[in-house]
């Protein structure tokens, strides 16, 4: 899978500074256990190269990048240590071309249209937008996207729990870089459980998983109507009759004949279906590819392969 696609599916890239290489593995393990098997270890400390090497050797499943790479020599050291991609704060053509010749994906920092045109001239389509909030945030990204329709962005700098969903809601933002789930004091205290907890909360926020409706298998259209009417009476809901089912409000769908699941199905809405699927697969869930439906060429719904408590579950794009 192309590196940019991997970062897009991850959605959030923890940007970390490691002062002690011995902290790198437990730190990245905490990120992975919290649901983010991805890390950008910055070359802002002397321990960066050794930290990357240790994570690469002991946690090979982590999508590992090297950040704050300023020179070709640093890029070579990062690659030799095990980094799978490079991120730089600015656009240095010498560093970009060096990485391209080495077959090493690079996401350089861009701050304005001139930077973007320089990136395009080097054959790049995805750039880091840095420092994102200081430069104008999402509004500036949207403004620059108008003339550069094929460019995608990885904003970093000032991204937090407060604005993460805003950034990711814009289709040209493939992922965000952030560090709030890795507070310096937690690293210093080696409080890996806190980092794991903060990461899990960030992933939950990003995916936006929420119950959309419960589908209940009825034995007949008549039974479906009766059950829908009872739910509507109980909760003062509107009944809407359809071809295959009857809805009571938006939360209950009574199937006119047995459908998926022993008892029925449960729809879980999400902000970005491919991203939610990727993360759930990392948790051990499998999907039934034959059930994938699309709308306007994009995934709209897909079922889990296995039932839970007698119900089929499917993701639903919000």
**Helix and strand element order:** HEHEHEHEHEHEHHEHEHHEHEEEEHEEE
What is the C-alpha radius of gyration, as a whole number of Å? 23 Å
Number of strands: 16
- Give the amount of beta strand, in percent: 15-25%
Q: Unreliable runs, pLDDT <50, ≥5 residues?
A: none
Structural class: alpha/beta
Largest sheet: 8 strands, parallel
Average residue-wise pLDDT: 97
- How many H/I helical runs? 13
Topology, element by element:
Layout: H1 3-10, E1 12-16, H2 24-33, E2 38-42, H3 48-58, E3 63-67, H4 72-81, E4 85-88, H5 93-101, E5 106-110, H6 113-121, E6 126-129, H7 132-135, H8 137-145, E7 152-155, H9 164-168, E8 176-178, H10 184-188, H11 192-207, E9 210-217, H12 221-235, E10 239-241, E11 245-248, E12 252-255, E13 264-270, H13 273-282, E14 293-295, E15 298-303, E16 311-317
Parallel strand pairs: 1-2, 1-8, 2-3, 3-4, 4-5, 5-6, 6-7, 9-12, 13-16
Antiparallel strand pairs: 9-13, 10-11, 11-12, 14-15, 15-16
Helix pairs in contact: 2-11, 3-4
What does this structure look like?
Helix content is 38%, strand content 24%. It is α/β, with parallel strands linked by helices and 318 residues long. Strand 4 (85-88), helix 5 (93-101) and strand 5 form a beta-alpha-beta unit. The protein has helices at 3-10, 24-33, 48-58, 72-81, 93-101, 113-121, 132-135, 137-145, 164-168, 184-188, 192-207, 221-235, 273-282; strands at 12-16, 38-42, 63-67, 85-88, 106-110, 126-129, 152-155, 176-178, 210-217, 239-241, 245-248, 252-255, 264-270, 293-295, 298-303, 311-317. The model has no long low-confidence stretch (mean pLDDT 97). The strands form 2 sheets. The protein has an 8-stranded parallel sheet, sandwiched between helices. The chain has an 8-stranded mixed sheet with strand order 10-11-12-9-13-16-15-14.
């Amino acid at each position: 899978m192309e590196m940019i696609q991997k970062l897009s599916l991850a959605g959030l890239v923890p940007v970390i500074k490691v002062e002690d290489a011995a902290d790198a593995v437990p730190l990245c393990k905490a990120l992975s256990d919290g649901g983010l098997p991805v890390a950008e270890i910055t070359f802002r400390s002397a321990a960066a190269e050794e930290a990357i090497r240790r994570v690469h050797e002991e946690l090979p499943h982590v999508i590992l990048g090297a950040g704050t790479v300023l020179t070709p020599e640093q890029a070579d050291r990062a690659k030799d240590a095990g980094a799978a991609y490079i991120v730089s704060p600015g656009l240095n053509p010498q560093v970009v071309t060096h990485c391209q010749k080495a077959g090493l994906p690079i996401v350089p920092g861009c701050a304005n249209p001139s930077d973007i045109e320089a990136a395009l001239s080097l054959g790049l389509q995805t750039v880091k937008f840095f420092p994102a909030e200081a430069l104008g945030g999402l509004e500036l990204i949207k403004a620059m996207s108008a003339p550069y329709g094929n460019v995608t962005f990885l904003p970093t700098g000032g991204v937090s729990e407060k604005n993460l969903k805003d950034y990711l809601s814009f289709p040209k933002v493939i992922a965000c870089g952030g560090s709030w789930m890795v507070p310096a004091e937690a690293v210093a205290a080696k409080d890996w459980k806190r980092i794991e907890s903060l990461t899990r909360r960030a992933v939950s926020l990003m995916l936006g998983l929420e119950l959309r409706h419960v589908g209940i298998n009825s034995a007949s259209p008549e039974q479906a109507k009766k059950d829908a009417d009872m739910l509507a009476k109980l909760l003062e809901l509107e009944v809407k009759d359809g071809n295959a089912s009857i809805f009571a409000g938006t939360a209950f769908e009574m199937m006119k004949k047995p459908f998926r699941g022993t008892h029925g199905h449960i729809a879980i809405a999400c902000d970005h279906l491919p991203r939610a699927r990727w993360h759930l697969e990392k948790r051990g869930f499998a999907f039934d590819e034959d059930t994938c439906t699309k709308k306007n060429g994009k995934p709209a719904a897909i079922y889990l392969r296995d039932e839970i408590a007698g119900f089929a579950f499917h993701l639903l794009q919000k």
